[in-house]
Amino acid sequence: MAMKRLRSPKDCCVAAVRKDPEAAFCEECGQPLARCMAFAECGGLVGDDGLCHVCVDPHLQIIPGATMNAPIGGSVALPFDLYNSSTIDRPLFVTGLWSREKGDWREERLGWETLDPGTRAPASVTAQEFDRAGLHEVEIMWTVATRWRARQENFAFSSRVLLNVAGESAGAAGPVVQISSENAMNGNVIQITDNTSRGSKDDGKVVSAIDMNIHRLDVEERRLGLRGITEDLRVPRSVAFRFAGFGKQQTPALELPISTPDGILAFGRSKTRAAGGEGDVHLTVVDQSGATDTDQSLQLSRRHFELYVENDRLMLRASGSNGLRINGSALGPDKIVPLNDGDVIEPLVKAPGALKLAVRFAREFDRVSLVTVTRTPAIQESAA
C-alpha cells in the first residue's frame, strides 16, 4: 500500500538548491531556500513549519494479524506500528504517546524511544468504555524529535480512527473489530460488528498493514511547549533578518531568512563570506573616535556566537572561548538560550559596554516576521 505522505517542499526548490548549494531563493517560485539543520547530510529543505521531510517521515500503521475484541461497555486495544521511512541514516526519537476519544489526552505507556530509519516498532492505545452503539472517534498523538549534533527539532503528529460499534445480539460473545482502509470523513474506519454468524468468512484479523492518514498538530506542539516562544507567538524559519549600525560587508546584504548551508548565522571576528571570510556577521569594537579598538576586538572569537531558528524560537549559542552576556547575565561557552524581543547581547563579558547588540521582533499575528539586530555603538563608514 502506498504511504500517505505529508506535504513536501516544491520540486523546483529542491532542484534549485541542488543546482546551486549557495542559492538563497528559488529562481522559479521565488521562495527562500531554508536548509535543514542537517543539510550537509540529508540535503533537505524545510518549509515555514520547520519540517524537513527527508529527516522526518513518520507513519502509523495498523499491523497485519491484529484482532481486537470488546463488548459494548468494555474497552478496545488498538495495536499499531510506528514506522520511520526516512532515507538517511539518522533515527527519530519518539518522546511521547497519547490518546483520547473526547476531552483531555491520556498518556500511554511506551517502552522504547529510538526508531531507526526503515524500521518499525510496536505500540498500542486503549480506547475506553463504549457505552453505546454508533460512531466513536479515537485520536492518537505522538511526539518525535530529530537530532543533529547539539540541536533538536520537536514535532507532534496525530491520526484519527473512527470506530463504528454495532449493538450486541443475545448470546453473542461480543463485537469483533474489523479494520478496513476505506476513508470516510478524511479518517480511517475500523468497523466493529456483532459476531453472531458462525458461517462468517471474516475472522476479524487485518490481512495487510493499513497506513493511516497523519497530520501535524501545531497547536498541540505549542501547548506542550515543544515549539514556539509562547502558545500564541512563534519565530518561523522564513523570518527575515535586518542589521542596523554595521559597516559595509559586515552583514548579509539583504533582509533574508537564514539560508546558510548549516542554517546558522555566525557572529564573530571572522570576516563575512561576502568579504572572503567564513562568518556571516563581522564584529569589531570601536573606540569613541570610531576607530577600531584592536585589543578589545581580539577578545572576540572568530566565531563568537551563533543565531539560528529551532522549534520556532530564535536561539543563541555561545560558541567562543570567552562567553558573553545576555541582559547582563553571563553565558559561558557552549551554552544555548532562546532570545526574546528586547534582549541585549553583550559579546565582551569583561567590557559589556564596549559593544551591544539589541534584538527586536516585528510581529504579524502569531508569528515574528522580522528580526532586527542593532549594534551600539554604530560603525561609522570611515571605520568600516
Give a brief rundown of this model.
It comes from Sphingomonas panacisoli. This protein is mostly beta strands and 384 residues long. The chain has helices at 11-19, 39-42, 218-223, 294-297, and strands spanning 34-35, 45-46, 58-62, 76-84, 92-100, 106-107, 114-115, 120-127, 134-148, 151-165, 175-184, 187-194, 210-211, 215-216, 240-244, 265-268, 281-282, 305-310, 313-318, 324-326, 329-331, 336-339, 344-346, 356-364, 367-376.
CATH homologous superfamily label of the largest domain: Immunoglobulins
Residue-averaged pLDDT, rounded?
82
Number of domains: 2
Helix content: under 10%
- Remind me, CATH topology of the largest domain? Immunoglobulin-like
Q: How is the main sheet built?
A: 8 strands, mixed
Notable traits:
384 residues, mainly beta, Immunoglobulin-like, Tumour Suppressor Smad4, 2 domains, eight-stranded mixed sheet, six-stranded mixed sheet, 4 helices, 25 strands, SMAD_FHA_dom_sf, FHA domain-containing protein, FHA_dom
